[in-house]
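As a next step, the fold was encoded as tokens, giving this record:
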Amino acid sequence: MPVVGHPLQLRVRVPRYRCVHDSCAREIFAHGTSTLARPGASTTRRCGEYVLRRLAIDKATVAAVARELGRSWDTVNTVAVSATEALLLGADPARLDGVTVIGVDEHKWAHVFGADGDGFVTVITDLTAVVAGQGPARLLDLVPGRSATALRTWLQGRDQTFRDGVRVVAMDGFGGYKSAATEELPDAVTVMDPFHVVALAGHKLDLCRQRVQQDTCGHRGRSGDPLYRVRRTLRTRLGLLTDKQKIRLEAVFAGEEHVAVEVTWWAYQQIIASYADQDRRRGKTALATVIDRCRTGLPAGLGELAPLGRTLHRRLEALRRNALGIRNLINYRIRSLLHCGALAL
């Protein structure tokens, strides 16, 4: 461990013993040091605890800790991986106690060819405290890949008590996660989180704008085209619009050829407003109203809203996750759990 900010190296003389009994299977053996350090390790067990505290609590980098200890980056990273895996192994049952709401999402952790799981991981978070209004989300695990198999395998690895306790699974619109959750957690409700609901509605708004752009101008958006000029303004929340932006939108919506864009924009804004409503019951009613209007009885020219309404009608509601990037998936998983897993050190 560092002493007054300087690396400290302990030189330990380990006694060797010779057994004088002829019946002993081993003649020469060394004094036991397993309480001080793992067999063959160049760092002490106490050093492993120090590395975990620096990474998890102080949010230090591996490079900074390596300088403090006078060791290489690889040595410190190996210590961190081993210590975290041991911590997870010993704390796993307790970490999952009381989890009733989980969030599932995909995340692109690597942007290089040939990365594990095509560079994607399935992120599983504990949202129980968030829903109860008692604290932030907590990272439970990262699983290589983004498929139904990834989530299904992780759920199958948990005991029946945990699976029976999960009441809600929040996720994005990927059908694979829904099928895995339905199979392994038949009593849980699968819902769509707010981030992806709003993102999906925004995507439909973009598609509508692009379609009307082609119909009215006969080409993709250009700098002087009215719809192209307001493409970012359309995605801005109503309460954040400036007076200048509002005037610009009113000018665009004044044209009859842009009616479809205006209707889709209003649906997008109403979805955002329903989640922002402080009264949850009122917000839920408002969201249900928007969804019902989108999926039934739409006039011609609003083709983007119908599939949006059908998708949102099937599922709904709350999530988010946090993770830090690194090139190796094992290191990435360990570092993310240290920073966001709320592990008891």
